[in-house]
Amino acid sequence: MTSATLRPLISVVIPVYNVEKYLDRCLESVVNNDYRELQIICVNDGSIDSSGDILNRWALKDSRIQVIEQKNVGLPGARNTGIRHSSGEYLCFVDSDDCIRPQYFSALLQGIVDNDADMALCGFQRIRCDADLDAVNQIQPTSSRVEWQILNRNSYLRLSIPRYSAWGKIYSRKLNLPAFEESLLTGEDVHFNITVLKKNPQLKIAYCQSPLYCYCVREDSLVNSRSVKQMRALCDYFFESAEESVKNHDPIGEEIFVLESVKRALSIRYDLMFDCSYRKLTKEDCKRAKRILCSAGKAVSLRSKILFLLFLHFPCLYRLFRIIQDPSLLRWERGMKLRYKNSGKR
What CATH number labels 10-217? Predict the structure, then answer.
């Protein structure tokens, strides 16, 4: 901190649903963080395993933990409950199957305070679901010194980072943050962050690449169990928002939605490239994305239009782009090829 006396309260919202295997690890990483001024709001969203007992045990050990019990309404509803009970000057979300590095809160808060920013976000590390906390904490950022990059909304949108996840970020309450959209099948965090971007055109963001957040990869998670229907519902949300923005000549909406709709179409085509039954559907999505891109105004740069048109016309280029960014996708591709070969779908 720039001032030793500056210790604002951070409200940490942790939605919980049937995560008894991972909850202790998550709470231990939050409770033992080097920043102590925390309001830890754990919303038990109708868990039927031992998650509720684990929460109550931790609440007895640490007075900063507040446990809220409710019937199951889903992740966005649980987060909204947490927001309603929060009173901190800053707000952040931690998923209950993930965990954070010891300097997570202090680093993100320093990013906001030192740079007079409205929000801060960091890099992340994918971890195995069975990794223990000691193993996680042994993985240190590449540099002990956190270096910050200051972004406006335009430069933020160009980054290849988890821009729209609720986790890995800290928000100033001065932003008048929206509620999560509880009616969405998936992508409520996308809607939340896009609303923040739309309502705050002068948004100032501090970003560091240090992997301070540990994202747990598990087969039974909500993200990994998303159906094609849910994936396409999110894609349609972007398409409709982009088309409305282009029709109304809304430069802010174009800037946010046009390229995002194209990225979603590209991503779905890549994710489903081994499933012949969806080939026609993804082809139609890409045609729709081309129409939107070509009809967009000057809010979308000529360079971006050319680049994404190339990706839409030549899937091999987009695949190469993805693999360069994340070489582990080659392992994912091999696994998908084997899965479809064994299922007889190819």
Answer: 3.90.550.10
